[in-house]
Amino acid sequence: MSFGFLGIQFGFALQGGFMSRIFQTLGAEKDTIPILWIAAPLTGLIVQPIVGYLSDRTWHHKFGRRRPFFLIGAILSTIALFFAPYSSALWVAAGSLWILDASINISMEPFRALVADKLPDSQRSYGFVVQTLIIGIGTWIASNLPWFMTQIGIPNTAAPGVVPDSVKFAFAVGAVVLFSSILYTILTTEEYPPSDLEAFEKEKEASKGFFTGVQEIFKNIAGMPEVMKKLGVVQFFSWFAFFTMWSFATPAITEHVFKATDTSSEAYNNAADSVGNYLGTYGLVSMVFALILAFITSKVKINRKLVHMLSLFTGGFGFIMIFFISEPWMLHICFAMVGVAWASILSMPYAMLSSTVNPNQMGVYMGIFNMFIVIPQIVAAVGGINFMYKLLFGEEVIFTMVLAGSSLILAGFSNLLITDRAATHDG
Predict the structure, then answer these.
(1) pLDDT score for 411
(2) Which of 309, 368, 376, 387 is nearest to 341 (CA)?
(3) Which InterPro entries does this chain map to (predicted)?
(4) What is the rounded CA–CA span in Å between residue 292 and residue 299?
């Protein structure tokens, strides 16, 4: 039931690892990159609660509750992923990112809800960790695709303003994997019908209409569980950090570590391929760490809060170390530490949340919870990154990685706000 996340993460990894490279190739200045990302989280802020709400109120005897949304998102994501690297102008690339991110999210949030639908509380840490294991595999493979394409002879350089063929081929492979893996989940996974189908149909009938749906979403936002609000603080600092990485890892590392700034040069494109390789390391380590957590959570009960806190601290120090390294290979160590945080971010908050939410509202609350992912990205995109790293650390773009690390450490400390035992411990 989680295999489709392999494809979803192919999309996210290619988007996160290489859209900034595409923006730079098309002439974007470093400080303008975050604003080019803004359409994606803005759309997510609107799309995710709506998709969650609709999936809660969907039931078909053949297609189920969540799977129709998997298919819609997969079709749209595949199209957007294929065409993104063929963008001829910055506004086209930004539009492609907007469509791609929104489409992936149509599939992603119902996937989160599906795990909570099908597993009892005692197995949810395990379920979300297994999902994270698959995400780690996707991140590692997809992040290395442009590098691999270069190794088999596909050019990784092109004329100024043209995205290299290695990136185009990588996105095409990602599109195929995304669609086929989600389709596999759709075809092989059964969903449970609502426990009381008659009551479900009556509730769905009563909530018909656009304005009724909007009112219910806002009512759910206003009445969100206390644990969810506290987790929102943790999520804010966590996703601010990772948005900073996706926006600035390529310009920061190619400039600071490889001393390459000419985006049409072979040196820059080799360095950008290497950045993708290093980003793959965090996916690989998140896979290994998730595998370890999967083994542990299948055998014993864990303290989710403590695991998440220590993991975020590890990732935060990994980001900060990037500023101090003397050799490029050391980036593997830094991103390995980031991978520990990534594995926890993709599992522990959802396990904590799902233990405190009404099962009949799982979809809408998973969608609302994603607001705490997209809001920090919006804050970062509209100037939060540029303002904060220059104010706190200095003008050099490498300080964005120091900012990302500091944000993750704050996210770790924010876990101390969560005191509900139902959330922090396996049931």
Answers:
(1) 96
(2) 309
(3) MFS, MFS_dom, MFS_trans_sf
(4) 11
pLDDT in tens, 236-246: 999 999 999 98
The more confident residue out of 58 and 253 is: 253
Position 105 scores a pLDDT of 77
Q: Looking at the domain that runs over 4-424, which CATH code has it been given? A: 1.20.1250.20
As a whole number of angstroms, the distance between CA 65 and CA 204 comes to 13
Task: Tell me the C-alpha distance between 28 and 393, whole Å.
Answer: 23
Length of the chain measured in residues? 427
pTM of the model: 0.72
